Amino acid sequence: MPYTEVPGIRVPIRMWADPDGVEMSAMQQLRNTTGLPWIHGLAVMPDVHYGKGATVGSVIALRNAVSPAAVGVDIGCGMASVRTSLTATDLPDDLARLRTSIEDAVPVGFHGHARPVDVTGLRDLPVADAGWDTFWSRFTELDGAVSDRRKKAFEQMGTLGGGNHFIEVCLETGTDGEPLPDAPVWIMLHSGSRGIGNLLARAHIERARGLPYNADLPDRDLAVFLADTPQMEAYRHDLFWAQEYARRNRAVMLALVQDVVRRFFDARGLTVTFGETISCHHNYVAEEVHDGVEVLVTRKGAIRAGTGDLGIIPGSMGTGSYIVRGLGNPASFCSASHGAGRRMSRTAARKRFTQDDLAAQTEGVECRKDAGVVDEIPAAYKDVREVIQAQSDLVEVVHQLRQVVCVKG
Prior knowledge:
Blueprint (H helix, E strand, L loop, with lengths): L3 E3 L6 E3 L8 H10 L5 E11 L6 E7 L2 E2 L11 E10 L8 H10 L26 H6 L12 H7 L9 E8 L10 E8 L2 H16 L15 E2 L3 H37 L11 E4 L1 E8 L2 E8 L1 E3 L5 E4 L6 E7 L8 E3 L8 H7 L2 H7 L4 E2 L16 H6 L5 E14 L1
Parallel strand pairs: 2-3, 17-18
Antiparallel strand pairs: 1-2, 3-4, 4-12, 5-9, 6-8, 6-10, 7-8, 7-18, 11-12, 13-16, 14-15, 15-18
């Protein structure tokens, strides 16, 4: 059996990770999840770790119910990547100016654009032609908790955020992790629904916790909304809007970075073209059919890996990342991991590591190396190579990448 099956309360836990290597708090969260009356199945990815409300790296299939905490507060968080016509030999030896140019174009941390991005001026943004005005017209239908945040949401469209979010310039490598001859250059980024998604998620999580049918759950953090209720309909409406915001946010950011790269190399006499964009959520809900049953699948720290689906599995700011193709494994509900996954908390990482450690572990990468990002040090994450190996029955590797520029919030 390619996965380990651990007994649960109502259904077993299918684990693509060593149960003995998963912290007890995460295992308890997973066991609590299997106690939900609406549970159809639970799959656990190799990057699994404890999460607020629900376990990161869990794929939960529920019948006629959904748990907003099992999505998390960054609704629609995910990845986008595109291959460029550039190769390693086109890159200058000093990449600092390219990094600062990206940082000038894309606000990071809590910041937003001084003025909303004019999406009509971004040549690499086909999403702007796909219902942009209709999307924003639905803002007035969102939960009252965000009624005064429209301006902020506009300003944060096309921004990175902080934490583990990033923008990278990468080189394609061989299986040994070393750049290929004339290695193609890729752009990759990771972000979600910013402040607006966070506010919507928190409002609905709190609402679910107060519903009487959630009073006797094994874990109130896993409180759900039930199908055919006003609360479920309100959540689904806001959830799908926030997932769309996250997708558009990544598309705007990617177009901004593509514009920076184009202008940067135009000035050096090089014309840059771009391939097809790969994009995937890894904190989201989808309506799917598994085992012949209609279910709501929550992926928190997991990507869809249906047969032929292209996905992105990043490492940390000093290690490689992978473009993968799904194998459609039904045992995992056609899912795979979303990244390397943390091996220690941010607090533990700040206590254990120094700026010198960060500089050593990100040698060769043009990136921040200050105290503000020590908690993102590569050693705080699992080995992404081992994570990939643990799910060889879920995905196949299409491209292996290594960053040379990393922008963090």
